[in-house]
Amino acid sequence: MAHTWLVTGGMGCIGAWALYHLRQRGERAVNFDQSIDRHRLNWLLSAEEQADITFVQGDLRDTAAVKAVFAEHGISRVIHLAALQVPMCRADPVLGAQVNVTGTVNIFEAARAHGVPHIALASSIGVYGPPEEFPPGLVPNDAPQRPRTLYGAYKACTELVAKVYFYDYGIASATLRPYTVYGLGRDQGMTSEPTKALVAAAKGQPYHIPFSGTMQFQLAADVARQFILAAERPLDGAYGFNLGGGAPATVGDFVAAARQALPKAQIEVADNPLPFPVGFDDGALRARYDTVYATPLAAGIAQTIAHITRLGDAI
Ligand SMILES: NC(=O)c1ccc[n+]([C@@H]2O[C@H](COP(=O)([O-])OP(=O)(O)OC[C@H]3O[C@@H](n4cnc5c(N)ncnc54)[C@H](O)[C@@H]3O)[C@@H](O)[C@H]2O)c1
């Protein structure tokens, strides 16, 4: 049976890449987003290619609108990405809860109403909390979740919501927890700074990254493909997975890799480590899926710079 895919937040960074890969595969895809700003999609797909995608403008907080998109388009596969990120949840906590928590409940309600048995959705390593809460090394997949931001608290709540929808209604789910996503289109959110530095460097401009520290960098295209795989492989429960994706690296390593591709890059890094553990173990993800997309950092940075350079003044 041909599936119709729903991507929520397809105007965002990971969502645009998800739409790109679905379209490359010839899948029928519907994007649900309150934004009509296609700047990220325009960097990835021509207007003709975008015509293969159905665009529905709507607000995730609107239960009826979310249910309508499932009903009208016969949605059978779901990648739920739309959310407000850390700074936006901090600036408007009520709106953050409405979009990130109620919006996710709306997706599950629509899945329940329309008999969709499994969905993929985005959480974040922000659910875990600061490094002092954990022993040194990679944080295990089942470590206690002690978020210190409202964003992390909302994501932790949605992981619990996903579990209850499995217990009560049998809707299975795969919840993926990205760390620092980078790549074309990563232009908002706290950890978008390394990608912004690549854009500036490719244009010959200096850039100051306001944080340092060790973390896991994940290429947006890889993350999007992992979401696609997670959406098309029904599970027997509601599972959360750290994305991991390679050895932890410092922001300095990221800049050094950028200089391999752009030797004249003028990127400074502040001495200000982010309050997150250095990395998260992805053993559970690797045990569950035969493919884990993890482009090596240097190759991902080189690809991103090549893409930015190709786009020229369009970015
Ligand atoms: N980018 C990262 O480093 C990262 C890290 C961890 C987790 N995540 C999670 O992955 C998901 C995708 O991240 P991203 O970087 O692509 O996000 P993004 O901010 O680039 O895009 C989010 C999209 O959601 C849409 N949206 C926001 N509120 C909405 C609403 N009320 N109704 C409909 N659409 C709405 C926005 O218009 C936007 O297009 C999010 O859930 C995010 O929390 C991202």
Which features would summarize this protein structure in a list?
12 helices, seven-stranded parallel beta sheet, binds nicotinamide-adenine-dinucleotide, 315 residues, alpha/beta, Rossmann fold, two-stranded parallel ribbon
Fold and architecture overview:
- This protein is of the alpha/beta class and 315 residues long.
- The protein has one domain (4-181, 218-245, 276-294): Rossmann fold, CATH 3.40.50.
- The protein has twelve helices and 13 strands.
- Strands 3-2-1-4-5-6-11 form a seven-stranded parallel β-sheet, with helices on both faces. A two-stranded parallel ribbon has the order 7-10. A two-stranded parallel sheet has the order 8-13.
- β1 (4-8), α1 and β2 (28-33) form a beta-alpha-beta unit.
- α4 (63-73) packs parallel to α6 (93-113) and α10 crosses α12 (297-311).
- The mean pLDDT is 96.
- Nicotinamide-adenine-dinucleotide binds at residues 9, 11-15, 33-35, 59-61, 81-85, 99, 103, 122, 124, 178, 180-181, 188-189, 191.
